[in-house]
Structure formats: structure tokens, C-alpha cells
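To the wet lab folks,

You asked to see what we're planning to order before we commit. Fair enough. Below is the target structure as C-alpha cells, and below that is the sequence we designed to fit it. If anything looks off to you, flag it before the synthesis order goes out.
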């Protein structure tokens, strides 16, 4: 008998398997993130061992490299690698992993596992690569370990047909507010690729630092990478650390990273901010400003600054020259030109900018911004590239061929799609990974929120108000990682994971959501992240306590926990909650003298931290 089922039809079975350690056949349910489109699990398993051979139908460098990614994992975790050969050299019935071109659409793959072999069918390198990513997730999670593991390398028999929902599945990283070195950028890309995320939006210029070497304007990195000090805490503290802060990527490093990403089917979309968020550049070349201030200095605190590019010829010459070098470094057709948060104060006071408004019959400074972006778009289009910008490029009229990244909620994205412009949904705060993902009372400083894992998971990027024709203009999603409060790689990973897994799933998987199923797969996925040393947030295992306003004397308490199959137990007398404590079932009322302390329990064991919340009137 064949065990045939679709994953979403058997949540109970899967939940029961959550706690089972991987490494034996029984435990090897299919728990892939992002969830493939069609999964059928069959009886039996394939055992990968030293005798297994990888056979390539197309043995060119691309497919040899893809097979190499499997061997890279096996060499660490299994202590052996598999020989890679051309398929035509295979003797009949040889046990192996076969990569075959079946003419599937770009990025799609078909993975079939039987006891005698594994076949990955694809149409492009990306499809073969994603088939391999799924195969890695079908193996015991220990395959992601950095040390040799003594497990049996079994793969459950199955048939998986898979293709992405969206062509644009992105992650953003701001390297300006804080800088991250080449090794971390590569690791960030590796983790994206593991989740079938294919666009890396690299935010390279800001008020607080310019991070990209431009040969024609050496000051941008000699000087513009530096800020003399950095604010401690939020905008409001007024306290600074007194330490110069800088960092930049040489063109050689950028080329290396672009190649590294391309090998993993990730396209890098560079962002050069204009006309706002330009203070670091203006500090180097003050002639690019409206010239209203005596000195310009790279920003030392977060926020928005009135010192923006002036709309004069020098600015366009500068930006066009910068773009020429950007085009040489980045093969991406799409380049991000920022366009967000550009105050109009300088333009209002600038004789030259007012002259441009008059000369071109523009209505106001918003139309001046649109004129600026359209002028840059013409140049960028003339070089065979296209622009994408944040919502604000809609102000004063959208440039004719521009794509929009909708961050101010969904409104801009809806408007752009209605005007038949392509849109990437990155709505704040739902897709902002700089927001808290747990109770702010016990979390490190973040931008706001909280935006919980479930909120991120539940978000559907295709607004219902759009007609089916307009909906087709929503080309994908992207998670934003602004790094004001992420001074280290560890903090970036803590904030990005596991929420990024939810974004990846929305970008790849079909529209129906199944939170229970996702959490079950995610809990298993944590073992993979553990193996890779990702310091993700573990709020998944903790109760989330919420107080809802009622009268001045009481609040209504609700609690939830992400971990599947967990119960919440709590106390109101300050003692440590245990399995014997009251079990949370329904919202309840507390008064000012009570403190809620709660913990998640599963199968009699505490699985996370005790969380505590105090009523502060
Ligand atoms: Zn000006």
C-alpha cells in the first residue's frame, strides 16, 4: 500500500511527529520550507551512502557546481562526498541522484525519490538548484551540521512538483546604518538561497554612510564611509558614543559577492538613494547640495535629513557617472533608486530648484521630485536597465517604466498596480524585520511593533481590491532589514529569523495558508538553522502575553504560543508557573495588584522561557 497524502490534510499526524528526532525513517516526514506546491509521500526511503553517485545529464560547469553544493554539505556532516559523473556513463540501474533537463519552466523542478534512486528534473539551473535545496531538506536536519554526524542519510520516498508563486522573492539588507563584512553578506545570501529567495536588495548608500567604492569619486568611500560617531539608543537619547564608524565594499569585493550570489541563483539589486538620504555623498561633494548650509557632515543619528541632492546639472552628471559604475558591477536589469523620505525644505529655499520648477512648468516640489526621478529613469533606461523605487516615487507622477516597492502599507502598491506598474510588496510594519517579534518588555531595542511571526506568515501580498488583471502586477514580496538597532551579524540573524522563513514561504508557496502546518515544519527547520549556527529568535517557544485596555482598574489578558501542540500555564501570584498551574484557555481579567507569569508546556515538559507581564496603569 502506498501512503498517499497531501501535507495539509494530515495536521494531526504531523504535529505528532514534531517532537520525534530526525535520522530514522519513521521520523522523516516531509518538512520543507518553503512548502512545495505538490507533495506526495510514498512508502519507503532512499539511503544515501558512499556508494551513491550523482549523475548529470548536462555536465557543464553550472550543474557540476550545483552538485558541488550537495558535496559541500556532505563533506562536513557525513564525512564523505559523492562522485559526480555524466549520466551517459551510468550503467543500467545504478543507484544514484540523477539531474535531468525535462524542459520545465524557469525555477521549477520535479523531485522523485524511490528506494533505488532520486531524480531531479528541471528546465534551468535555478530549477535544478531548488530541487537540490528541497532534497537537502528531505535529508535528516543533521546534513546542515558543521561537524560529522553519525546518522543514517535517509530520504523519504516522495514525489514533489514545485514552482514559485512569485518571480520576485526578496530580502533587503541595509549596510549603511550598520556595516556588515563580505563573509556575512555571503552567509546572508546562503540563507536566502536555502529558502529559495532569489533577490538580494542591497541598500548601499545613506545619510549615515556611503558603502560602495566608486572609482571616479574616491571621496565617497575615503570620507563618505565614515561618520564621526553614532547615537546610542533611539533618536531621542541625544547621547553619542564618540567613536568613528565606517566600512565599505571595494569594487573587487562587490564583483566577488555578485558572482557568489549568481552561483546561488540570487540576483543582487543595488540601491543608490536619490534624491534624499544623500547626506554622506553631499558631505564629500557639497556642490551636489542646494548650498544652503555652511558645512555638511555624514549623519550621526537615525532619521530623515533635509540636506538632499539639488536638482542642478552637477547632480545628474554625478549620479549618471555613479550609475555607470554600478551597471558595470551589477548585471541586474533592475536597479533601486530609493526615492523615499525626501524632505522638500531645501528645494523650497533653493533658487536653482525653484528655477527648475518654473522652467519646466512644474506645480510644486513633489512634481520636481517626479521630474528628478523621470530624468534619472530616462538615463537608466537608455543603458538597458530599469528602475524600482520606494512608494514615494508615486508623488507627483510615476516615471513611465518604474516598478514600485510598496512600504507605506499597501496603498502605493495598489495605486501602482492599478496604473499597470509592477509592484513588490514590502509593507511596513508587516514585512519590517527591524520591528520586535516578541514582547518589547523583554526584547532588545527595535524600531517598533511588535510584528509577530504569525502576522508575517498570515500576510497575503495580493490585495483583494485589485482586479485579476491588476493583481498580475504584484510580482513578489521582500522582507526589509533596516539596521539602526542591529549593530552585529548576530543581531541581524536574530531579528531576521525565523520571520524570514514566513516571508520566503509567502513568496514561493501557493496562496492557501496553514499556520499549524507551517509551525510544525518550522520547528523541525530550527534544527537546520541550529546546524548552520543561525542565532534565530526563540520566542516561538514562549507564551506571548497581551494586555487589552478595559477600565482603569483592570485589563483583559490574552495569551498565545507559536509552538505546535503546546499549552500555556500561568500564575497571578508571582510564583513560577508549572504544569500544575492554571492552564490558559480563555481570555481573563486581572487587576492592578496582579502579575501574569506564563510558560509553554508540551508533553509535560517546559519548552521555553517563563514570560512575565505587569499591569502598569
Ligand atoms: Zn537646489
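Sequence we intend to order:
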Amino acid at each position: 500500500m502506498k501512503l498517499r497524502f497531501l501535507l495539509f490534510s494530515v495536521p494531526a499526524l504531523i504535529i505528532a511527529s514534531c517532537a520525534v528526532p530526525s535520522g530514522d525513517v519513521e521520523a522523516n516526514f516531509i518538512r520543507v520550507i518553503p512548502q512545495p506546491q505538490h507533495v506526495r509521500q510514498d512508502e519507503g526511503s532512499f539511503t544515501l551512502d558512499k556508494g551513491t553517485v550523482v549523475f548529470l545529464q548536462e555536465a557543464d560547469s553550472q550543474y557540476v557546481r550545483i552538485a558541488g553544493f550537495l558535496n559541500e554539505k556532505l563533506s562536513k556532516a557525513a564525512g564523505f562526498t559523492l562522485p559526480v559523473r555524466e549520466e551517459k556513463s551510468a550503467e543500467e540501474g545504478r543507484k544514484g541522484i540523477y539531474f535531468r533537463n525535462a524542459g520545465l519552466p524557469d525555477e521549477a523542478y520535479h523531485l522523485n525519490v524511490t528506494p533505488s534512486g532520486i531524480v531531479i528534473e528541471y528546465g534551468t539551473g535555478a530549477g535544478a538548484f531548488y530541487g537540490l535545496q528541497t532534497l537537502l531538506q528531505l535529508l535528516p536536519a543533521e546534513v546542515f551540521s558543521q561537524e560529522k554526524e553519525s546518522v543514517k542519510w535517509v530520504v523519504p520516498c516522495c514525489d514533489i512538483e514545485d514552482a514559485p508563486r512569485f518571480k520576485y522573492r526578496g530580502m533587503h539588507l541595509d549596510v549603511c546604518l550598520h556595516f556588515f563584512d563580505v563573509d556575512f553578506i555571503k552567509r546572508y545570501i546562503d540563507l536566502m538561497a536555502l529558502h529559495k529567495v532569489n533577490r538580494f536588495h542591497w541598500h548601499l548608500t545613506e545619510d549615515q554612510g556611503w558603502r560602495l567604492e566608486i572609482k571616479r569619486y574616491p571621496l565617497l568611500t575615503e570620507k563618505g564611509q565614515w561618520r564621526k560617531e553614532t547615537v546610542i539608543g533611539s533618536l531621542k537619547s541625544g547621547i553619542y558614543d564618540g567613536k568613528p564608524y565606517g566600512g565599505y565594499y571595494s569594487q573587487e569585493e562587490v564583483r566577488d559577492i555578485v558572482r557568489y550570489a549568481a552561483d546561488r541563483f540570487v540576483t543582487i539589486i543595488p540601491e543608490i538613494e536619490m534624491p534624499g538620504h544623500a547626506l554622506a555623498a553631499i558631505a564629500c561633494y557639497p556642490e551636489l547640495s542646494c548650498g544652503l548650509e555652511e558645512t555638511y557632515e555624514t549623519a550621526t543619528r537615525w532619521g530623515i535629513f533635509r540636506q538632499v541632492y539639488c536638482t542642478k546639472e552637477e547632480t545628474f552628471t554625478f549620479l549618471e557617472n555613479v550609475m555607470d559604475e554600478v551597471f558595470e558591477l551589477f548585471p541586474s536589469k533592475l536597479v533601486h533608486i530609493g526615492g523615499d523620505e525626501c524632505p522638500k525644505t531645501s528645494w523650497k529655499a533653493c533658487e536653482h530648484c525653484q528655477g527648475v520648477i518654473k522652467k519646466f512648468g512644474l506645480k510644486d516640489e513633489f512634481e520636481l521630485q517626479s521630474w528628478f526621478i523621470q530624468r534619472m529613469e530616462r538615463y537608466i533606461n537608455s543603458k538597458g536597465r530599469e528602475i524600482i523605487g520606494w512608494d514615494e516615487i508615486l508623488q507627483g507622477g510615476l516615471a513611465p517604466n518604474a516598478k514600485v516597492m510598496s512600504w507605506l502599507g499597501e496603498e502605493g502598491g495598489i495605486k501602482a498596480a492599478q496604473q499597470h506598474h509592477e509592484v513588490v510588496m514590502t509593507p511596513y510594519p508587516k514585512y519590517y524585520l527591524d520591528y520586535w517579534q516578541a514582547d518589547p518588555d523583554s526584547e532588545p531595542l527595535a524600531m517598533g511593533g511588535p510584528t509577530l511571526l504569525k502576522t508575517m506568515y498570515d500576510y497575503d501580498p495580493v490585495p483583494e481590491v485589485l482586479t485579476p488583471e491588476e493583481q498580475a502586477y504584484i510580482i513578489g514580496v521582500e522582507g526589509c532589514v533596516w539596521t539602526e538597532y542591529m549593530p552585529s551579524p548576530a543581531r541581524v540573524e536574530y531579528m531576521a529569523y525565523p520571520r524570514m522563513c514566513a516571508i520566503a514561504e509567502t513568496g514561493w508557496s501557493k496562496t492557501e495558508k496553514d499556520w499549524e502546518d507551517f509551525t510544525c515544519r518550522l520547528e523541525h527547520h530550527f534544527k537546520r538553522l541550529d546546524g548552520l549556527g543561525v542565532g534565530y529568535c526563540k520566542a516561538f517557544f514562549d507564551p506571548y502575553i497581551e494586555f487589552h485596555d478595559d477600565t482603569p482598574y483592570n485589563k483583559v489578558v490574552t495569551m498565545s504560543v507559536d509552538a505546535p501542540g503546546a499549552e500555556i500555564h500561568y500564575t497571578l501570584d508571582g510564583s513560577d508557573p508549572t504544569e500544575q498551574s492554571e492552564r490558559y484557555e480563555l481570555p481573563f481579567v486581572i487587576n492592578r495588584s496582579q502579575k501574569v507569569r506564563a510558560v509553554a508546556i508540551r508533553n509535560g515538559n517546559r519548552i521555553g522561557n517563563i514570560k512575565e507581564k505587569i499591569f502598569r496603569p
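Structural context that might help your review: The pocket of zinc ion is lined by residues 290, 310-311, 347, 350, 352-353 (CB under 6 Å). The domain at 173-528 is CATH 3.20.20.80 (TIM Barrel).

Thanks,
Computational group
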